[in-house]
Amino acid sequence: MSKILFVNPGSTGHLNPTIALCKALVERGEEIVYYASDQYKDKFNHIDMEVRTLPTQPIIEAFTTFKPNNLYNVINGLLNTVDHIVPQILEEIQDEQYDYLIYDSMFGCGNIISQKLNIPTIASVTSFAHTKQTFDFLLNKFAEILSEDELKQADKNFNKLKEAVETKYDVRVPNRFEVMHNPGDLNLSYVMENFQINKELFDSDRYYFAGPSVKKPQPSEFVQNLDTSKPLIYISLGTVFNKNIGFFNKCIQALKDLNITVVTSVGEDKQLEDFDKIPNNFILKSYVPQMEVLEHTSLFITHAGMNSTNEAILSGVPMIAMPQSADQPVVAQQIENLNLGIQLNSEAVTPTDIKEAVKTMLDKQDEYKRNISKIIDNKQQQKPGFELAADRVIAFRDAHCKS
């Protein structure tokens, strides 16, 4: 048995894939101390591990100080969270011994903490992996759309933050890539290798694409009460971007007259009066058991969050991607590039556009499903992603840890 320090103060999309992984590791005898944002402290109640919390609100405030509307400011925001994460962790673990460190590749200051502990590291990667080469290419693309003044200010802020962190914590912050992606000795991705952009660039010794870290859903009354005799369309913008009432109303107008069943996840803070008149073929719910519903879904209208996209691929469901923010435009583009679905602009799209897209995709459903089947490789057919990930973590431990 080894002791793992797991640092992941990110949002639900960064945390959810690690839940099943942690359970699998604990079942194999690993001891885990997990740092998560305080709003998610109950996520691991069913697992025999210690959860310690980091303060959500100060971290968010620090991250958004530079208005994260471009990649340069996102990186500065991440570097600005260090003082709300690193001191607490280092103080609380100063008399503790750990065999290896797992951290979220974007959140959690993994590169800095790893320098202080000098133990083997695993980065938990919830979106597309990047090399420094691919990241620098992306960064240069963002530089092209910024004004000279914006770029100068971003550079000034980065250099000031970098110097402050290096001085205060006696560490190196080599470049923006290290801040944004925190590569570890092993980089464990929940993306399927065949969906990864530029997959040929990643060394199999350092990058492992386990695929979706989700458990097979248990049957519930929710699906039993659905009319699955007709094509089922599932609509969700995820847990963060589901406030787009205008978009949901466009879907209602578009699909109300079609001979389909439409299940829509709208989030907990919605009132029915916020929506247009709900047609008989629509079911609006604050919560939908997504993996279970996807098993019966003909077409998924999604924000193209990586977790939702992974789950749709795993379930063999074609997608209409309506990206909202973050990495979703890149995910949506890959969905379209691989012909697993199409992408539309959720703000500019009209009800007529949605209706025609749904009808066309239902007619070509078999073609999309064949393309999706090519993404799922043999190892994902044999074991769920969290088991594959746990296997790789244990192999890494045996190769790199002393005890």
UniProtKB/TrEMBL annotation:
Entry-linked Pfam families: UDPGT (PF00201)
Highest taxon of the lineage: Bacteria
Keywords: Glycosyltransferase, Transferase
CDD domains recorded: GT1_Gtf-like
DNA-binding is among the record's keywords: no
The keyword Transferase is assigned to this record: yes
Family recorded in the similarity comment: Belongs to the UDP-glycosyltransferase family.
Name listed for the protein in its UniProt record: Glycosyltransferase
Organism of this sequence: Staphylococcus hsinchuensis
